[in-house]
Each structure stands twice: as structure tokens, then as C-alpha cells.
Amino acid sequence: MKMKKLLLFLSCVLCVSADALHEDIHVIGCSYIHGGVMFGLDREELWYADFEKQMDVSPQPTFIQPIGFGAGAYEAAVSNLDTCRQNLHFTRESLKDYPAQRDAPSGVMIYTRNEVELTVKNTLICHVTGFYPAPVKVSWTKNGRITTEGSSINTPYPNKDGTFTQIARLKFIPQQGDVYSCTVEHLALTDPLTKTYNVETPETPETPETPKPSVGPAVFCAVAVIIGLLSAAGGIFFILKANKCI
């Protein structure tokens, strides 16, 4: 029988299979402004609801057989979000003075999904982790100007230490000299955190080094000289000894 761990945090439900080879998760999280519903497997997103665009998203890799969640999955997520906010309201009413814990992001990284080739479509990833509460706000710029086209952000993913991870993506076409940045805002930050990415031509392979002379013959010659000197010294020793005996 599978053992299940249940974590309830302001209507954020985390289900973990403790004795199986895989770990599955279902997150329902909310505030009065933001909300998220997500299904995941082995720390990878399978499905989440994008409430801003009013649609569901399945960021599953193309090389696996897609895992479906059935018709009406987005509508069910909207219903779960409403229930979450009702529970949040009742919780705040009963715990009027609960402490507001805030942890700033411990790590922000920006990198590309695939190896960069100029003029070939790619995706920039802004990986934010170690923050509490969720979510963070991520904005993108291209050459100093705010850009939103092709951008998306996933539902906050809970870490084992109680903090969250969130990943923002930006589809782009690399052009030599372009500069992109992702800026992260969070309740625990006094100033936003910004990471930049410069598009550069991939480095050309280095010219093979000129083969260096082998040290083998030199070592061999040195050893031969030493052996020769030792042999000469041995011969002189025996000659002198023989002379004494005469």
C-alpha cells in the first residue's frame, strides 16, 4: 500500500508517494491576488493552469507519450482556486496575528534551453528558487526594453525545505549582440534581482596545438649516460683493486 504524505499550507496540497519509485505532486495554492494549480511527476511539471491567459498548459517533452488530464481540467482548476481562497479567508479570520514569514530568493539563474545557434529559435529560462511565500514576479527585457511576447511562467513548485521554485521562460531568436535580462521581484526583496544574458557567437574550436617533441628519447639518453658513468666508475674500481693485489 502506498503511503502518502499530506502537507496543507493555505490550501496548498502536496501529495508525495513515499515508498514508490516515482514521486507525484498536486499543488493548489492561492493568495487574494495570485493562484496556481499544478500536477507534477518526479519534480517535472506535467500540467498547470494559466489563470492570466485562461488556459491549461502541458509542458511535457515531445519524446514521451503525452499524459492527459481530461476535458474540463482547467474549469476544475478554477473551482479549486475559488475553494482555496475561501479557505484562506477563513484561516486569516481565525488566525488574525499569525507571523508573516518572508524568505528572499536564494538563487536566480538565467540560461538557454538549447545550445545557442544564431537565428535559430531557442528559449531563455529564468530559474528562481528558495523563496517564501510564493509567487515571484518575473519581467523580461531585450536590449533594455520590456518584452512580453513569448513569455510564460510556471506554477510555484514546493521545495522540501518549505520554500518554492518558479521558472519563467522567454522564446527568442538569438541575434549577435542582443542583451536579455530577467528581473525578479518578491515581498522579501527590497530591490529587484536582475540577471542578464548576452548573445554571442559560439566560440570556434581551438586550433590544435603543435605537437611537442617527445621527452622519451631525451629521458632514454639521460638514463644511458648515467648507466655509462656508473659502468665506467665500476671498471676503474676493479682495475685499482686488481693493482693492489699484484
From TrEMBL:
Encoding gene (name): LOC116334044
Name the record gives this protein: Ig-like domain-containing protein
Keyword Disulfide bond listed: yes
Record localization: Membrane
Signal peptide: 1-18
Similarity comment: family membership: Belongs to the MHC class II family.
Transmembrane segments: 215-240
GO BP: any one term: antigen processing and presentation of peptide or polysaccharide antigen via MHC class II
An example Gene Ontology CC term for this record: MHC class II protein complex
Primary subcellular site in the record, as a coarse category: membrane
Keywords of this entry: Adaptive immunity, Disulfide bond, Glycoprotein, Immunity, Immunoglobulin domain, Membrane, MHC II, Signal, Transmembrane, Transmembrane helix
Organism expressing this protein natively: Oreochromis aureus (Israeli tilapia)
Membrane topology: Single-pass type I membrane protein
SMART domains cross-referenced by the UniProt entry: IGc1, MHC_II_alpha
Keyword Transmembrane: yes
Pfam families given in the database record: C1-set, MHC_II_alpha
Domain Ig-like, residue spans: 99-194
